[in-house]
């Protein structure tokens, strides 16, 4: 007899892989917008969190379009974490496009074009359409072969038979080979719930029928109930795309699927590059759809980290882009005080955060403050739990002291190697000794500079 054992010691993959901000799960505000003490992974920084909460409310009520926010504060004070939390509060349907200032500079794309592309990645469009579809659970999927009309030994697919089942009945469809291709592209198998658009033949996989929910499955799979009603029906289809998706779909010769192809049909095809002209055309179609009530604009968030890396040309472009009628909310972050603006002729003029005064003038500025020892202790212990490490209270205190005197990042970075040391020594908890050993092994920035200064000539 085959024996089957349950595996309890395997962690789900979402738990075993951690990134720098894995513990951040939203802003952690209560219903009045007041920062809760330790909530949503966020510790302290109450004023900034509450300010971000107001921004989230404004974005949700669509009052923030074309405005910009600056998160200003020292390194490791949680600016990136705040931006991420804003996007989490907005939910997955609102586009969030994070970039770093230096990302805009490449030899291939003009910097202003790169900025525009990211602007359009951050503007969403929700399109509602009533479509005639065939929807149901796939019960049969048989390609029918025919002799190749061009002769030779090969066979071609003449058509494909698809059986669809709903709660009301079943229907067998004979479809064109081109539809078979999109069926294969969507990786449809028997037991999936799909719909096929009657006009375009576009195939969309909705999920796996929940009749199959008990089957062994490695991948995370979305199970959906068996569709009600007839197989052939009209259905309201909601799609979330970004303006950039539309640009891309229309720049490709054949266009994409679904709504993208619908939009694609309206514009002249056979463009291969996203040009300013193409964008204007896409905008025209989009405004028409909005006027007709078919589509709704969802301005998302464009996050530009290290804003001091932008230069004067990009700044003027940014000003203009913010003033256009469709603009996302722009969140900037900087850890610089007074620095020179990149690209300005006169290097002696310094500006706050390296931003020109006219941009600063239109920003809402949110300040992030350094953490105190108690807060750092909480952040470190949260990270330790997340990484599956136990730390003795003494060791935690020691890390918190480092967090204040050196930096939060240094304290967080010592955790993982200290965990390795304690494990090799056969302990289950990280002790003060482990931390001290790690300090010797891994220099912080200040000590590293000191070493370099003392030993001139090597490197
Ligand atoms: N208030 C906080 N609560 C919990 N974790 C925080 C907090 N502030 C920062 N962190 C964590 O500390 C690390 C550094 O913060 P980060 O947001 O990258 O700083 P910045 O962008 O300001 O340089 C990240 O891992 C971040 O998730
Ligand atoms: Mg950052």
Automatic annotation (TrEMBL):
One of its GO terms (cellular component) is R2TP complex. The keyword NAD does not apply. Residues 1-20 are annotated as: Disordered. It comes from the Eukaryota. It comes from Scheffersomyces stipitis (strain ATCC 58785 / CBS 6054 / NBRC 10063 / NRRL Y-11545). Its main location: nucleus. It is found in: Nucleus. Keywords: Activator, ATP-binding, Chromatin regulator, DNA damage, DNA repair, Helicase, Hydrolase, Nucleotide-binding, Nucleus, Transcription, Transcription regulation. Its EC number is 3.6.4.12. This is RuvB-like helicase. DNA helicase participates in several chromatin remodeling complexes, including the SWR1 and the INO80 complexes. CDD domains: AAA. Residues 1-19 have a biased composition (Polar residues). GO terms for biological process: box C/D snoRNP assembly; chromatin remodeling; DNA repair; regulation of transcription by RNA polymerase II. Residues 65-380 form the AAA+ ATPase domain. Belongs to the RuvB family. Pfam families: TIP49 (PF06068), TIP49_C (PF17856). It is an enzyme of class 3 (hydrolase). GO terms for molecular function: 3'-5' DNA helicase activity; 5'-3' DNA helicase activity; ATP binding; ATP hydrolysis activity. SUPFAM superfamilies: P-loop containing nucleoside triphosphate hydrolases. It catalyses: ATP + H2O = ADP + phosphate + H(+).
């Amino acid at each position: 007899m085959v024996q089957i054992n349950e595996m309890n010691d395997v962690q789900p993959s979402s738990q075993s892989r951690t990134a720098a901000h894995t513990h951040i799960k939203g802003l952690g505000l209560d219903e009045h917008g007041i920062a809760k003490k330790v909530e949503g992974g966020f510790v302290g920084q109450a004023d900034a969190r509450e300010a971000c909460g107001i921004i989230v409310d404004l974005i949700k009520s669509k009052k923030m379009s074309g405005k910009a926010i600056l998160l200003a504060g020292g390194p490791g004070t949680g600016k990136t974490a705040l931006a991420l939390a804003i996007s989490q509060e907005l939910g997955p349907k609102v586009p969030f496009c994070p970039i770093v200032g230096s990302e805009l500079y490449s030899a291939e794309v003009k910097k202003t074009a790169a900025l525009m592309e990211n602007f359009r990645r951050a503007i969403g469009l929700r399109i509602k359409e009533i479509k005639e579809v065939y929807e149901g659970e796939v019960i049969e999927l048989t390609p029918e072969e025919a002799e190749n009309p061009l002769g030779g030994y090969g066979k071609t697919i003449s058509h494909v038979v698809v059986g669809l089942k709903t709660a009301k009945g079943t229907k067998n469809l004979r479809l064109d080979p081109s539809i078979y291709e999109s069926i294969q592209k969507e990786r449809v198998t028997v037991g999936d719930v799909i719909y096929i658009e009657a006009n375009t033949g576009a195939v969309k996989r909705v999920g796996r029928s929940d009749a199959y929910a008990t089957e062994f499955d490695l991948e995370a799979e979305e199970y959906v109930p068996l569709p009600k009603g007839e197989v052939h029906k009209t259905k309201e289809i909601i799609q979330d795309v970004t303006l950039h998706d539309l640009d891309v779909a229309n720049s490709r010769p054949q266009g994409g699927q679904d709504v993208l192809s619908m939009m694609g049909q309206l514009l002249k095809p056979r463009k291969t590059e996203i040009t300013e002209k193409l964008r204007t055309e896409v905008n025209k179609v989009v405004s028409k759809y909005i006027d007709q009530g078919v589509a709704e604009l969802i301005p998302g968030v464009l996050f530009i980290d290290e804003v001091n890396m932008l230069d004067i040309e990009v700044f003027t472009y940014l000003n203009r882009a913010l003033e256009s009628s469709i603009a996302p909310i722009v969140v900037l972050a900087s850890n610089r005080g007074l620095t020179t603006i990149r690209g300005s002729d006169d290097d002696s003029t310094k500006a706050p955060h390296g931003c020109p005064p006219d941009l600063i003038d239109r920003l809402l500025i949110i300040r992030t403050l350094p953490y105190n020892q108690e807060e750092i202790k909480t952040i470190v212990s949260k990270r330790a739990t997340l990484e599956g490490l136990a730390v003795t209270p003494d060791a935690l205190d020691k890390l918190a002291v480092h967090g204040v005197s050196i930096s939060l990042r240094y304290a967080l970075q010592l955790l993982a190697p200290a965990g390795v040391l304690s494990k090799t020594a056969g302990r289950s908890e990280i002790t003060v000794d482990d931390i001290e050993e790690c300090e010797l092994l891994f220099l912080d920035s200040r000590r590293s500079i000191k070493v370099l200064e003392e030993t001139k000539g090597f490197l």
